[in-house]
Amino acid sequence: MAETKPTATASVKATSVQAKKSGNAISWIAPILCVIGGYLIWRFVMGSADGFKTPDANGGFWPNHKHPIGAFHRIYEGGIIVPLLIGMFLMVITFSIERYLTIRKALGNGSISDFIRKVQYHLANKNVDAALSECDKQRGSVSNVMKAGLRRYKEMITEQHLNTEQKVLAIQKEVEEATALELPMLQKNLVFLSTITSVGTLIALLGTVIGMIKSFSALGDEGGAGAANELAVGISEALYNTALGIGTSALALIMYNVFTTKIDAITYGIDESGFTLTQSFGSLYK
Length: 286
Description:
Structural class: mainly alpha
Order of helices and strands: HHEEHHHHHHHH
Distance between the termini: 28 Å
Largest sheet: 2 strands, antiparallel
Helix content: over 70%
């Protein structure tokens, strides 16, 4: 009867990596609050009656104030699209702060490359406990993956029922499972920044079109000098929407690129960690 080799899945314990419990309420609460905040800024700050020579005494949801005092209050004439654009700007600020705090924590303490070199040094000296201690000091996403791999690495040193190739595969599997839990946390909510990058410009274009429609409509209805004021208001609405949309989209694009660059650095460090563990084990424990 042919002898069968034990497999890694049959003899190795289940992964020690635990799924992270993290809510994402900010992904639906923040956009709502930001849009509401955008309207409040537009209606009660930019649209304050004190900022216009001819305020609308009736007030209401969208007062028809005339003759703004200063450039800040002129933005109010951009129309009802302005609150949405301000809300999107606030979303960019909110999710930029949230991503910065998350990615800063994921980067851990000190340089990732220095951390990996220290782990490599300890593994070369067969001191797995010292390598685990370095993970506790670094406390980032790379160290989390490395720590999960090192724990399985340590188990495989004393494992008697598997050959070297199967042990390396077990370590690699542990690293992959730890990586699968870390990366989604890094990329979460970046979709808002990438979406605003393109949608912000489209909404600004919508506001521009609405403003130009009002301009030419006033010119066609009244004609001559009587339409000059309405024409100016319509053009202002078009230009303010364009400026706000382009500015918001540009900021979102910059922040998105900054965060993806940092995530790429972390991902590279995670890949290097897995390579370090498998290569070290394969060469030292044949």
